[in-house]
Design a protein that fits this description.
Order of helices and strands: EEEHEHEHHHHEE
Structural class: alpha/beta
Number of domains: 1
Number of helices: 6
CATH architecture: 2-Layer Sandwich
Strand content: 15-25%
Strand order of the largest sheet: 3-2-1-4-5
Shape: globular
Largest sheet: 5 strands, mixed
Helix content: 25-40%
CATH superfamily: Ribonuclease H-like superfamily/Ribonuclease H
Length: about 190
Amino acid sequence: MSREIVLDIETQSAALADLSKLRISVIGCYFYESDTYEVFEEEEFPSLFKRLEHADRLIGYNTKGFDLRVMNNYYNGDFFSFSNLDLLEEIHKALGFRLKLDDVAAATVGTRKAGHGLQAVEWWKQGEIQKIKDYCLQDVKVTRDVYEYGRKYGALAYVDRMGERRGIPVNFSQTQAVSPKINLTMGL
């Protein structure tokens, strides 16, 4: 059974130039092992991180450019040492440019995101945590659907500036060796 985990984060404020100062409101995850979607608030991060340490691979969209960098603010180890698949990175390798998750999802699986990250920041300011959780988990679902499509068909899609649907060749197989699992969150 796969222990891959699809994840996404929402932050408490808009992106700062210095990501080391950015705080997370929630982390949403899909766990292949249990076929469940779960969301975690700050006080729950230590228990989530223990689960992430045992994952076969972490999967997300712009995770290497954003999510993992911000998650490292909370973690004693380094999420970049884990097996990771960043869908945006794979798209950039194939095309030479970046695309929004919303555009890739719409062209690939016919689903759009429920909104954008700045709405989650406003909800944080208003104390509407459940809205953030729902939004984050919907992003995780969209990311999972895009990943599943790419894994199954070896391609994703986007609509170019001329309105033509174009393919994006991808290979989401896990070719790198899985590193041994060690509990890096254990206190010494």
